[in-house]
Amino acid sequence: MADRRAFRLDGRGGADEIAPAQGRPELPASGFAWVHLSGSAEEIDGWVRGAGLDALATAALTAEETRPRCTVHNDTILMSLRGVNLSPGAEPEDMVSLRIYLSERLVITLQRRPLYAVRDVIAESLAGRAATSPGELIARIALRLADATEPVVMALNERIDELEDRVIDGAGHVRRGDLADVRRMAIVLRRYMAPQRDALTTLEIEETAWLHGPDRSRLREASERVTRLAEELDAIRDRAQVVHDQIMDMRSEAMNRQMLVLSVVAALFLPLGLVTGLLGINVGGIPGAQVGWAFWAVCGVLGVIVAFQLWLFRRMGLIGHARPGRGPEATEQR
Questions:
Q1: Alpha helices, DSSP H, located in 280-320
Q2: In the prediction, which pLDDT does 198 show?
Q3: Contact 124, 15 (CB under 8 A)
Q4: Closest CA to 124 of 111, 105, 143
Q5: What is the pTM of this model?
Q6: What's the rounded Cα separation, in Å, for the pair 212 and 167?
Q7: pLDDT number for residue 22
């Protein structure tokens, strides 16, 4: 069963919880009413269709998929915001949608999954610190949503800091899965933070008669908080790309060093193999075949060839002068 709660806010900081009506509640003589529903889609959609709202508002509040937005419809405002999912066992980036119907005397908020930001605003209101206007109420909810998102973004910052340190210092392995997880979370959160900023900015600048100066100031503050979070997520995504590029460069450098070693070894043994191959062919006329010391002479010639090759490779800078680099231990662990 849907959790349906209703409140009467007197516009002076006080709030009383009232019995929730089956449909649209009766508006108070002063202040405004706030109805909050939490439950399954079927239960919430059934209540909305019976609340006597117009077709556009009903469609917006019962939409299956939503992204943060703000739409002005006659003298009402339809909004959708998103908050991180802080339920036990849930992924924070699996953000919860909050659908909002906003007018001068009535606020309706709907959520299909738990959203602790709204719970905190309700507790604050019943403690005698309620919003004095619908605009302030939405600004408080938006700020609470930003407060809940900030620790998640800070945790991502700490994770990318650790990955950067491990790559730069070569102190340990960096698994591709860890980096991919950071990038995925930053991208998903950024997907909702940017339109949420636009939605709050739209609400702030709309010419709505019942939105006053203090309300717009609070909405501006909420918009700036969300903007900062979006910029942090952009930075995390870019830093993750830089870490990925560094890992690929280090892997390429390690592979180049290994290929150089293999090439030097192959170049050393190529002339030796040629000489021994010529001396081992099964035809007559092999020089020294009947001389006892010929084997040692051939070994001496091969040693001279190796020494000459080593001297030549050193002069060419292939060995002995390689610039030190980080070992493969700093690269990605396969």
A1: 294-315
A2: 92
A3: no
A4: 143
A5: 0.74
A6: 51
A7: 63
Assigned token pair, 220 = 């501006």
CA distance 100 to 157: 31
Q: Quick one: how far is CA 183 from the chain centroid?
A: 5
Single-letter residue type at 150: E
Give the amino acid at 36.
Answer: H
Q: Which residues of 124-158 are buried (b: 16+ CB within 10 A; e: fewer)?
A: ebeeeebbbbbbbbbbbbbbbbbebbeebbeebbe
**Cβ-count burial of 82 within 10 angstroms (0-12 exposed, 13-18 middle, 19+ buried)?**
buried
Only one residue has tokens 């309700």, namely 122
Q: What stretches in the chain show pLDDT beneath 70?
A: 1-2, 21-25, 170-173, 320-334
Domains and CATH numbers, the chain: 3-246 (3.30.460.20)
- Residue matched to tokens 């993750």: 240
Structure tokens at 177: 């899965």
In the chain, the N- to C-terminal Cα span, in Å, equals: 49
